[in-house]
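Input.
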Amino acid sequence: MCLAIPGRIVEVIDEANRLAKVDVAGVRRTVNIGLLDGEDGGVAAGDWVLIHVGFAISQVDEEEAIATRRLLEQMGVEYEQELAELKASAIE
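Output.
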């Protein structure tokens, strides 16, 4: 199962390639934030995003991010599997 998991952008680490370090439930991974670029400049450190297969696909506020994570945690095994896959993945 592939889920969109909320995470908070810690820092933009490669502006040219639109890569950012994101914290997802204590797991830090590099994700592409380029899909969220727009006229307003896109997302930045401190923003919350939903992550799917290595890409930030939507910006959310902190309240929605926390509510989504709580809901995902209730899924149990599927959520734990998604976190395990996130830990094993890497974008270089």
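The mean pLDDT is 86.
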